[in-house]
Amino acid sequence: MASYRLVNGQWEARVSLGFSPDGKRRTISKRFPLKREAREWANKTEVKTSKNLSLTKTVADLSNERMAYRADEGMSSEHLANVERFHTNWIVPYLGHLKLSKVTTTTLRKWSQSMKQEGLSDNQRRKVINELKATFKQAEAEGQLATDPARHLKPPREPKRPAEALNPAYLPALLGSEDALMALAVRISVDTGMRRSNLLGLRFCDLEGQTLRLALKVVEDNGAKVLPGSKTGQGVHSVIVSEDTSAAIEAFRKQREQLANGEGVELHREAFIISNSLDHGEPMRPSVFFNRWRRTLKALDLPPLQFKSIRHLTASRLLQAGIDPATIAERLGHSVDVLLSTYAHVLPGRESEAASIMSDLMKPDAV
């Protein structure tokens, strides 16, 4: 992959030549009056370099470079040992002898099947394949490969985990947390069952009485990226919250407004409810929220829990209470089919009752 910069009135193109045997990155650069000329030279150099490397380099060479790169990443010794085991036990013995020019997607698919035939679990095979894909992707980015042969190689799918609902016994501690922001986040989530992305997209202005609009959502994309609240981007979904939740949001807004004013700052006109900025003008980044959730659990001496478990608690309790699935699905932003397939295990068994009803219908005096 080439990079460009303006140096003393000339455009300098720098092209990566991969790594030397001792793990150091090698580059070549040249300067031109015009950026177009620099780009043309870089493209030709990358193609030439890629062809030359593909003729001589093997997968084992790539594996060695990848491990040197991983060691420089500063990962834990335990994690590094696991990655090294993937290369030593499964990548190099089976693919190491192949020249890069001879590696194809078909070859890699056969390799994946051979690991399965040797009894490697789907979970471990997934990790090995993802490490190989990362190795080839890095090589392509550095110009060592013209195309990545592993780009179409698919690892085994992760099994769908059953929905695990939050233990209701944990709610008093969570709702009484000293972190007022997290306590409010839990309250809103229990009341509505909304997704974390929608929770992070809530603004104070989205609350009107007891109606809460889910106009926005926030996802992780090198920071907090704000998107329309619905999956399709069409329309705005709304939910009704309890009086207690509505009052808690309003009390939190006043508290945050006083805090901001005390620092000479006005609360943002469209302030986000869940925010770590003083004026609440920016939503909280999902990864920051995740870390804050973990710290809250640790401070309350609770076991590690997914924030999503609150959503499962809401769905489970509403189904068990006899609320009709269509209403619950609408509240959670699910389709009825997805709701029932996900939470069928929490519905009370009523087959005997159904059989009894139909049996009564067929009795002589039923009509």
Model description:
The protein is built from 14 helices and 8 strands. 50% of the residues lie in helices and 12% in strands. The protein has 2 domains: 1-159, Tyrosine recombinase, N-terminal domain (DNA polymerase, domain 1), CATH 1.10.150; 168-346, Intergrase catalytic core (hpI Integrase, Chain A). It has helices at 35-56, 59-72, 77-95, 105-117, 122-141, 171-175, 180-192, 196-200, 243-262, 286-299, 308-320, 325-332, 336-343, 351-361, and strands at 2-7, 10-19, 25-32, 207-208, 211-214, 216-220, 224-228, 237-240. The chain is extended and about 85 Å long. It starts with a strand and ends in a 6-residue tail after the last helix. A 3-stranded antiparallel beta sheet has the order 1-2-3, with helices on one face. The protein is mainly alpha-helical.
Write the layout of secondary structure elements.
Layout: E1 2-7, E2 10-19, E3 25-32, H1 35-56, H2 59-72, H3 77-95, H4 105-117, H5 122-141, H6 171-175, H7 180-192, H8 196-200, E4 207-208, E5 211-214, E6 216-220, E7 224-228, E8 237-240, H9 243-262, H10 286-299, H11 308-320, H12 325-332, H13 336-343, H14 351-361
Antiparallel strand pairs: 1-2, 2-3, 4-5, 5-8, 6-7
Helix pairs in contact: 2-3, 3-5, 7-9, 7-11, 12-13
